[in-house]
Sequence to fold (480 residues):
Amino acid sequence: MRKVLPPTLRPERIRSLNGCGEAAPGPVLYWMSRDQRADDNWALLHAQREACTRGVPLVTAFCLAPVFLGATLRQYGFMLRGLAETERALRNRAIGFVLLRGDPGREVPAFARRIGAGLVVTDFDPLRIKTGWRTEVAAALRVPAVEVDAHNIVPAWHASPKQEYGAYTLRPKLRKLLPDFLTPIPALRRHPYAWPQDPGPADWVAVQQSLRVDRSVGEVLGLTPGSTAALRVLRDFLKNKLNGYPEASRNPAVDGLSHLSPYLHFGQVSAQRVALEVNAAGAAPAARDAFLEELIVRRELADNFCLYNPHYDTFQGFPAWARRTLSDHARDARPYGYPRDRLEAGETHDDLWNAAQQEMVQSGKMHSYLRMYWAKKILEWTRSPEEALQTVIDLNDRYEIDGRDPNGYAGAAWSIGGVHDRAWGERPVFGKIRYMSYNGCKSKFDIPAYIRRVLKNQPLTTAVGRTNRTGGRLTNTEAP
Ligand SMILES: Cc1cc2nc3c(=O)[nH]c(=O)nc-3n(C[C@H](O)[C@H](O)[C@H](O)COP(=O)(O)OP(=O)(O)OC[C@H]3O[C@@H](n4cnc5c(N)ncnc54)[C@H](O)[C@@H]3O)c2cc1C
Fold:
């Protein structure tokens, strides 16, 4: 009987990592990293097609690194609970899942050798640490390794071969390519070839308990991770908020955002699925287009920045005009000066800034409009742009659930270093970097209403020594 194979992917979505030619016999290994979901995952779909073509099992491995860019229990917990759901979804389709622990650069090739993998497929991430792991894995393998961009709708390397100046230069390129890439996503099938060496399900409770990570920033209780929750959040957005976009999304005093960023960051939902659902929702065209501008253009611009700018998280990564103007104003007197601990504690003279900081610390997600104000004030109140950028990145990555993301590095570089922006009127400290003021915010939204919302909405967190009513134990009823 003729085999019916899963559909092929567009070749532009796939890149060889090590130039090895023919796949060897043995299972196909999907090294899952950024895109931690079973459905709507182009890397997994490619791995399944390759496994079906060869008539071999398909095995997924996720490697849990002991430390990752300052991630705390908050982010590890959200990720692990999502992975537990993904493991169940894969097992239901007869796809193996193994949780590895340690340095992915060493563990992934060692595991590939142990199971006799004939091909390794992984997903794409432009961050330096991930690129380093992929290079190590690919160099250590004797079988082909490929990466598949499962995160961007238009594969980042295909959308543009260079760092873009701004949304205005990337947008037309994406527009031209979207008809080819924003297409329906085939379903992941039940895999026809079982993996006989399957060690059985991971013990997620034991994994959680044995984590040696910073537990001083706890999980956000009441926020459910995972792909099912992501689709619920998406449906709520489509039904109740999309038509109010972008006006409501710019008003921190009301709840007008999608809140999809934690799910998008961990790849628990695909941006392409979100875009397809938004297109099908029948929303007002202006609202739909404004949302897709953020979801597609801004998000993919951030990946472009991190892919092509090796200095995406330092002063050196700013455009020349911005470095010049910030250097010209490096010695300007700062109106206020706060050390890192006062900022972290939300103890400044500015009640709006303090509330934004508190929103991030408590809920793991600061309002998007205030992220810009928050970062720009850190530039105004610290000793140098270098210190400001480092403080923004450290606090963002420590408290935001969606932190350590290209969007975060691009957002910090936009706020402090003029990346993807233009020069504005010159003023102290900022030079020609765009300025934001308390009075500007006051004219745009009801600041006291926002502050009341933050105070009222403080969710429980399991932060040790913070608002922890459970003695630091992981008692989320959603625990795997
Ligand atoms: C200083 C600063 C730090 C930031 N840190 C992060 C971060 O760590 N992680 C992160 O995902 N985003 C970050 N952003 C971008 C943006 O603020 C968030 O993506 C947004 O607040 C997420 O909330 P939402 O999903 O409810 O947004 P929505 O408005 O509902 O947007 C939907 C999606 O569009 C994308 N998007 C929206 N705004 C932007 C933007 N400005 N740039 C890129 N993509 C965007 C995101 O994927 C977002 O999830 C940062 C921005 C700034 C200025």
